[in-house]
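Hi everyone,

Forwarding the result from last night's run.
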Amino acid sequence: MTKDRITLSQMRDVESFSSPEILDSFLADKLNGGSLALVLGAGISANLNLPDWKSLLADLSARLSTTVPAGLAPDEEGEVLLAAAGKNRVTLAEHVRKVLYAKVDRSFGALLSSPLLAALGALAMPSRRGSTSNIITFNFDDLLETYLGYYGFAVQAVDRMPVWNSRADVRVLHPHGLLASDPNTPATQGIVIARSDYDRIVNDKASPWHAVLRQVLSSHTCIFLGLSGADANLTSLLQLAKDIHPATTQQHAFWGVRVSDDPGDRAAAHGRIGGCFTRFSTPTVISPVG
């Protein structure tokens, strides 16, 4: 056992992960072994000059000349927007695309200056230290793919299932849809934004997406970025993954990491995502126990 690897007893000890050194060694080992995956949520948008949901909703409402009633859940708000777009999912997706990138500079120089993209890119780019070849993002944007493309890496952006396998350096899965940042590439299909979309695509256990996401989540240690742990669809998938995850059968303390800046969300992390250990302002961790 080398000094940069943690022991089996440490892997099974919840308290040992309170040590940044042990957590770093744990994640480095998973990265080197090819069993680390990234799961990205809306919380990273602000770091890339993308609008948060509130701003996106306001701008979409203005574009569609509609008013979204207060007090609705996000997927219910999405239904209002879909109705305002004449129930045309492609039309709504194109409106979202234009609002999404309204303030984004996708040039290489601008993307290169993003510490977040630099960190994500370092994990995704193949090297001797290992890399993560699977990324799940619940966001619509393609800025990470664009960033990696500037460096010459082959990226497979997947926004529909089933799809042919490829020899890409990294695969980025977009279960909620993908909207191209290239202004010359209009939307050609809908995105998951309304309740009916979730029921039709995400919540259907017979859908190819459900099987693919469960496979990635159940066979990797995942780093969750920009996800609160309150998403019912993600929580359901994680519970299914937890039941068959190797970490569960091997009695490891954790099988995922969630980044958080809020010290008050430790309990929520442990409860909502099947046992999450939070390392604030850097990583949170997910356990097969509890």
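The chain has 13 helices and eight strands.

Cheers,
N.
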